[in-house]
Specification:
151 residues, alpha/beta, 4 helices, 26% helix, 28% strand
Amino acid sequence: MKKIFLENEESTKKIGEIIGEKLFNGAILCLNGDLGAGKTTLTKSIAKALRIDEDITSPTFTIVNEYTEGSIPLYHFDVYRIGEADEMYDIGFDEYINSDGICIIEWSSIIRDILPKERLEINLNYSGMGREMEIISYGDKYKKIVEEMNI
C-alpha cells in the first residue's frame, strides 16, 4: 500500500497521468471515495495518458462509457446507482473485465464481491488541506505499477 497527499486538482491530474502511463491491456482500476473526491478527475488524466482526446464524463446513468480511440480502449464504469452487484452482469461486465481494454470502476466497493482478485484499488479521501490517496495493489502486475511510480 502507498499513501500520497494531493494538494490540489493539478496534483491529482499529475498522479493520474503517471498511473495511466503504467497501465497495461486488461488492467482493472477500482476507485473509491466520497462525491467530489477526485475519481473522475483521476480518470480524465489517465485517459489523457492513454491518448484519449474525447471528453471524459462520469457515466452515472449509463453505468459504462467506452472510449476506443486511444492507445488502449478504456471502459469507464460508475456503479453508484447499482442496487446489487449481480446487475453488472446484465451490462456485460464480465466481457469488459476480461477484455484487452482498461476498466476503471468508480464506486467499486459497491460491487466488491464480483471484482477480479487482481486489481489496483485507489481510495481518495479529504484530509485537512487536500486529498489523501491510498493505493492498494492486488497481484504482482499491480504491485509493480505501485513500485514504479517513484513518488
